[in-house]
């Protein structure tokens, strides 16, 4: 969608799937020049500590590649689980839904464009 990649996770992620997603996203950001990644996790009903760490890792990798990551659609049970596991998802921006997530990405791009060199 424009200069942003939209990733929709439709199944509960296993460790290998999360690692593959991380690798695929890094490659796609590099080849496409995307400056934003929106990850929709509304279909995820459960997460474990590994998947939580992978979301934070994906955000860090995207940041190094000059892209902002926004995670949208987090269900309350998933948020509670992440808090109980002590995972803060440092550096990961969140939004309630895809529309708000895209607005957040746009605001992020505009804010970066306004910052002096």
From TrEMBL:
Gene3D superfamilies: STAS domain. It holds the Pfam family STAS. InterPro entries: Bact_StressResp_Reg, STAS_dom, STAS_dom_sf. Residues 1-105 form the STAS domain. SUPFAM superfamilies: SpoIIaa-like. PROSITE patterns: STAS. This is RsbT antagonist protein RsbS.
